[in-house]
Amino acid sequence: NEVLNDTNGRIVNFFKVLRDRPDELIRKIELTPYSRREHYEAREASSCSVEDARRWYCDVQQGFLNKPRGGWLAHHSRSNVSKVGLSVGRLMDVARRISSTHIDNVPAEKCIKQWDSKGTLFYVDSHYPSTDQDHYRGFSQADFERLIEQLSSIKGRAVLSCYPNDAVPKSWQRVDIKTNCSASSRATGKREPRTECVWITP
Question: Which one of 62, 83, 145, 180 has the minimum C-beta count within 10 Å?
Fold first, then answer.
């Protein structure tokens, strides 16, 4: 079994619609113009699951850093329209990839507990503790430490990604990835260096 889980209901809805009604969703996305007004109107949720999936995709793909509810991305030196077009072209491949995947919308703790076994590998893309991440804001250092405690006692194994954090046991294998923070460049004009970490449980 393969499981995708997220606490953001709109993300979960997008992948469910892409899995179950890919032709309808992709056609609606292909007909969505690259437009500032379209982007900002897409922030509002729709009661129609297919339309809400289209809106969420539009909000993310036309937004700065592909962040929900971010600013509209318009850049004089590159074609953002072409970038979105390329991503749309890959959606059917994604739909096939997740055709037999379980898609859930529960807290990580519950998901890990339900699917844990000796043969399970979890990939946990943790929220960054004590940072403003839109839907994921409010995730504290204490929350992160509880996550580490749970992952330390699972039957299976886990791959965890986050910024450096002393709460992660030294016994876990760690790989550092040097990167730059694009968000900082908008405020300072410079891309500040950051370190992303990937840990693997013993």
Answer: 180
